[in-house]
Write a structure and sequence with these properties.
This protein is an alpha/beta fold and 259 residues long. It has a single domain, classed as Spore Coat Polysaccharide Biosynthesis Protein SpsA, Chain A (Alpha-Beta Complex). It is built from 9 helices and 16 strands. Strands 1, 4, 7, 8, 10, 13, 14 and 15 form an 8-stranded mixed sheet that branches. The protein has a two-stranded antiparallel ribbon with strand order 2-3. The radius of gyration is 20 Å and the shape is globular.
């Protein structure tokens, strides 16, 4: 079963970093967040990836083409008059990675539609290239299969950035407290599962997945929500990047579900 990752957007809300590289290639620790996401799926045995590229796609393609250079110890031996590269510790993942050009200005639904020939007419995972979680991917899939629906998305309640106020009708504040996740509405945390029927709801490049396709699936009773009450964090801003980096550097990153 393939895991499709949307990695083609401009990442304008984190432009301090994305001006130089696609957002999925922004590093947490010394690895792109894209690598972290793929490691999450791989931990549950899903190693066949389709990455929907767009903005600065060459950076993603070159990183995978030079995977040994980025992840292994290398000796370059010029002593014999040739450029010989010796790889000492072949740090490879058991991945099959298909990188496709889905256009520079294509919307999320359009990117999925363009990937159809690489996905095939089969069930597939889909997620964004900028979020991590300690989600049980197998449990998500089991939930989707049991629901019998066309689409399942992961519903999360993000931690609020600001304090919460309890107020009376006349404006009197009765309590000021840290905002808890349960104070927030559920949102789409990504980590979705789709049946191939979703392609029929995507018209073309201008289709935003989160608008007509998912709204129409919900209207038809074909959209399920898998509640995830554990860790979830997207990386939309530099502040959120620093949060993820601090968790990774602590050695206790919640999304590190692999050994």
């Amino acid at each position: 079963m393939k895991a499709v990752i949307l990695a083609g957007g401009f990442g304008t809300r984190i432009s301090e970093e994305s001006v130089l590289k696609p957002k999925p290639m922004i590093e947490i620790g010394d690895k792109p967040i894209l690598w972290h996401i793929m490691k999450m799926y791989s931990a549950y045995g899903y190693n066949d990836f389709v990455i929907c590229c767009g903005y600065k796609q060459h950076i993603i393609k070159e990183w995978f083409a030079d995977y040994y250079l980025h992840n292994s110890d290398i000796t370059f031996d010029f002593s014999g008059g040739e450029n010989n590269m010796i790889v000492h510790n072949k740090a490879l993942e058991p991945w099959k990675v298909t990188l496709i050009d889905t256009g520079l200005h294509t919307m999320t639904g359009g990117r999925v539609k363009r990937a159809r020939s690489f996905i095939g007419e089969e069930r597939f995972f889909l997620t964004y290239g900028d979020g991590v979680a300690d989600i049980d991917i197998r449990a998500l899939l089991d939930f989707h299969v049991k629901s019998g629906k066309m689409a399942t998305l992961t519903a999360v309640q993000p931690q609020g950035r600001f304090g919460a106020l309890d107020m009376e009708g006349d404006g009197t504040i009765t309590n000021f407290r840290e905002k808890k996740p349960e104070d927030s509405a559920y949102i789409n945390g990504g980590f979705m599962v789709f049946e191939p029927g979703i392609f029929d709801l995507i018209e073309g490049d201008d289709t935003v997945l989160e608008e007509y396709p998912l709204v129409e699936a919900a209207r038809r009773g074909e959209l399920a929500g898998y509640r995830h009450n554990g860790f979830w964090q997207c990386m939309d801003t530099v502040r959120e990047k620093h949060l993820l980096e601090s968790l990774w550097d602590s050695g206790d990153a919640p999304w590190k579900v692999w050994q």
